[in-house]
Amino acid sequence: MKDHTGGAAQGGALAEALARCVGARIDAAHANPATGLVALAVYGGTRRVLGAGIGPRVSGVGILPRLPRLRAGASHPLVAAMRAHLVGRRVLAIEVRGDGIVIVAGDDDAVMVENDRGGGEYAPRLGLAAPEPGLGPAAAAPEPGLGPAAPGLGLAEPGLGPAAVPEPGLGPAAVPEPGLGPVASPPRLGASPGARLELTPGRRGEARLLDAAGHLILRWPPQGGAPQAAVAYPADPLAAGAALVEASDDAAAGQEKAALARAVKTRRAALERRAEAVRGDLGRLGSVARLQKTGQLLLAQGARVPRGAAKALLDDWETGGKIEVALDPARPAKAQAEAFFAKARRYQRGEAVMRARLAETERALSAIAALEADVAAAEARPESLDPLAQRARSLGVSRAELAGEPGTSGARALGAGRPAPRRPFHAYRSASGAAILVGRGAEDNDALTTKHARPHDLWLHAKGATGSHVVVPLAKGASCPADVLVDAATLAAHFSDARGEAVCEVSYVQRRYVRKPRGAAPGAVVYDREKVIAVRIEDGRLSRLLATKEEG
Question: What is the pTM of this model?
Fold first, then answer.
């Protein structure tokens, strides 16, 4: 910031309002980077919220009537930096300049003075000092223990900052021109300044956070803005602040609504695919009679099939024709008859589960269609969108799918239109809410186990059967709860060749004991320290788990 004139001349009303924040404690720091609103809440007998719009959607500055409802979470870089360097400290000085506002915060009192390089430095205000350029005349030397008088911006409200009253015998306090000098609180010995925040309002403005030595901590946006030549400060900071926070919430809510609509539409499409897949599974029930017939023919005619044959032509006694059957060359044909009988039994036993899942999916489809209509008709207001987001989550829309979920960071909505990278697993939830990850295929199994699972996670697989790798993410040193283990084992059995069996053995070990041999086929692994659980497949448990599916 270099320009100390221009817009600052208009900032008398704002400077007078900000004078009441000096000496107050910074209680909170928030931002909505999607709209550009930055807010600092301070308390010094009365709570005040300073807001600045740095773009791209809102610009300006004022005293906000409240914190913005839609704002970024604590993990956002700008919010994290402000909370680390400003929150909990006191406002030492606020300067209204022609190109923006400077807020100085510290643990004790110090003032910011500008050096000849155009940067800022902190120095304790002890005794007489020569006036710094643009900062107005120095304060008179204080009597011991009394502290200097603050630069004159009128009497402060009780508890909100020092009054500009000269001490007896020290002469009048220096009064800077409105908006051109800093508003400083009385210093104490042992000054320990913290940081300064420079805010440049405007559609392409920026926020800069610097440490006590003037070194840049963070710049937002990272590439910097292109600030306008002079800032137009409001004549009524309270009215300007009210308009600023409303404009930010309105702009963010529009993005939130669009993101919510996209997430609901994606969920509806996923449920439609699930319903189609279950209908396909039910369609295979018509093959039960053919499987049973093939098993019977193999039992009767298998002795005539040459050992090591990959297929056999069997006489169909009912039609007088031939039936071609694919065989495992490593096993006698007659011994393979039981595999056809087992598959037929699995289809028959799974029918009740499949029909229950189809009915549940169709109910969810009906509910998501109603939600989609409600989202389209809803006003873009947080109070309207929050209940709809809760309904969406209850219908299986994950927080990740809700990229711009109301009540969280509006910044996420900017990237919501980009497709998320494909995950090699689908996520399910146990009754307690624990995540259970299931590989989507052979190569996906490898990716889940070797790239996504951590060494201390629990790894499961149906024993002696081809199937999906299953991973339960665990905290380091934690053990898997019994109910989560049973849920994960149920999914491991269901997504394997043992699907439909009443009881299935499932192997489980820590991921650290699973390894993939060099040159092994996709999905093939070996493991040590195996434990085995025999899980009885309960239709109710399986239906509950399948209903929690989060698409990968």
Answer: 0.45
